[in-house]
Amino acid sequence: MGDHNERREAAGIDERGLRAPAAYSIRDGATGVLTLEGELDLAAAPELRKRVDEFDGESLVLDLTRVTFIDSAVLKELLRARAELSEKGVRLVLASVPGPVRRLLDLTRTSELFEDAPDVDSALKRLSG
C-alpha cells in the first residue's frame, strides 16, 4: 500500500458545535490503483490532479466503488487525466462506476471516452492481459 493522504477525518465537536467529517477520500490502493470515496467535488479536484500527475506506472485504475457523487470539476479532471495519460501511453480504467457517476458520464456524453470495468479485479486482469 502507498501513501494515505486522505481528506476524511472523524466527526468532532468544537466551539461551534458538531463538525462533520470531510466528504471525500483519495488514497493509493493496490499497485496502479487509486481509490476514490465519497463526494468528489471542487474541493477534491486538486488532490485528484496531483495524484494523477504523480503517477508513473503503465496503467492506472480508478476505483470508484464508494464514490457517491462527482461534479463538473472532477469530471474535468477525469477527462484531463484520460488525455494526458493517453499521451504518455498510460491506460486509464474506471472500475466499479456507480449509478450517479454513470449518469453524469452519460448525460455529458463522455462515457464512451473512458474504458471501464465492473470491478478492480476485472480492470487489473484486463490491463495485465
How does CATH name the architecture?
Answer: 2-Layer Sandwich
What does the radius of gyration come to? 15 Å
What is the CATH superfamily classification? STAS domain
Helix run count: 4
Mean pLDDT reading: 87
- State the total count of DSSP E strands: 7
The biggest sheet, with number of strands, parallel, antiparallel or mixed sense and barrel status, is: 5 strands, mixed
CATH classification class:
Alpha Beta
Flag low-confidence runs. Answer: 1-11
The secondary structure category is: alpha/beta
What overall geometry do the principal axes of the alpha carbons give? Answer: globular
Strand order within the widest beta sheet = 3-4-5-6-7
Give the SSE layout.
Blueprint (H helix, E strand, L loop, with lengths): L11 E3 L2 E3 L4 E5 L4 E8 L4 H10 L4 E12 L1 H16 L3 E5 L3 H9 L7 E3 L2 H9 L1
Parallel strand pairs: 4-5, 5-6, 6-7
Antiparallel strand pairs: 1-2, 3-4
Explain what you see.
34% of the residues lie in helices and 30% in strands. It has 129 residues and is an alpha/beta fold. It has a five-stranded mixed beta sheet. A two-stranded antiparallel sheet has the order 1-2. The model is unreliable at 1-11 (pLDDT under 50).
